[in-house]
Amino acid sequence: MIGCICSYGNYSQRSYRSCRCNYGYRGNPYLSGGCRDIDECEEAEGRNPCGEGYDCVNMAGSYECRTRKTKTLAIILGLSLGFGLLVLAVGAWRLYKFIIKQREIKRKKKFFKRNGGLLLQQQLVSNEANVEKTRVFSSKELEKATENFSVNRVIGQGGQGTVYKGMLVDGRIVAVKKSKAVDEDKLEEFINEVVILSQINHRNIVKLLGCCLETEVPVLVYEYISNGNLFEHLHQDDENDDYTMASWEMRLRIAIDIAGALAYLHSAASFPIYHRDIKSTNIMLDEKYRAKVSDFGTSRSVTIDHTHLTTVVAGTVGYVDPEYFQSSQFTDKSDVYSFGVVLVEIITGEKPVSFLRSEENRTLATYFILTMKECKVLDVIDARIKDSCNVEQVTAVANLARRCLNLNGKKRPNMREVSKELERIRDSQLHVQNEEDEDTIEINFRYSWNDLVTDSSSSITTTSSSHRTL
Where in the numbering of this chain does the Protein kinase domain appear (predicted)? Predict the structure, then answer.
């Protein structure tokens, strides 16, 4: 028996047994299981036999004193463990973000260097007087301005890229053009053109505010023009008729604005700049319907040809100069041809290419030249302006358009001549007289204006008369 101990002996030839309970036990040692363990912890009657800060734990025949485990300690341990895990998680997250940020910084630096950022900085240092005119935006600025290039911000899309409407931190509304691709071999020329075009300040040219070179392809930032482009106003559906285009005076003013801008680019700018993609969709209209020429090749590479800066772009079907198409040599007269097509659009309201016309007259230029040869210009004037327009002015502009569309580039006027001629048409009282030879048109101006253009089928003779200046 564990709870008791017995001793045996003999007395007077009789054996006997003397038993007692072991320490920590109590009871009758002579009965089986009679010695029972004493619970010293309970018998203390509220007094802790182990003392303060310890717990009494009953054991067989004894008791143990164990350090007391309080709820506060458990809470502290739990909080410590939780905080440690939180710190570990936050540290891991920050490390991850740091790694991602470093990768993004390296990526932006790579794009900045590849897109000619270092070259642009050198250009700015060498041209400190115009530093403020060229702004290099960060990708973060433009992402914020366009809500991370949201589809809801798209205001234009084409083969060259997508244009987004954005708002800079200073409140300015801008058009952000994100190109689809870039020729890495031509980045140096691209940067040269960005610097030059950012210095252009003409009221009829959309201002290039700057660029961003931290993206995979360069992003260009222009001033925002609110009234869309000329093509939309000339060719929208009948049910949404544009009454602005119902005025010949408005159309003539737009033509003069375009011609003035191109004349500036060709001859008044620091270097001659050829647009190479003149078309009605690249003519923007502001809130007062003043024309602004846009998108002249800055998102594309350029080449230096002696003193002329030209963009390496094929152009748009219906506007491309046939002479350039055959020879691959672009000149200022190629822009003149494209402008001639835009003039015809303004006069006729017809699209530059239409499958509604016969195959031989599918392009507007061909159709118009045939009409002029047949002296039927009045038959092709846009119905929206036909009844209210100055027929003499329209006829004079039509003849100018025909000169611009001459297949021989050398016989076309330059843009400065075109601009001056349009201004004279606007400011002059014209009298158009049909001669016996239907192919000859004599135009008399209040101001002196002499010009002679002869081709295989018709001639335009101009005579001048002197009048008092108004």
Answer: 149-425
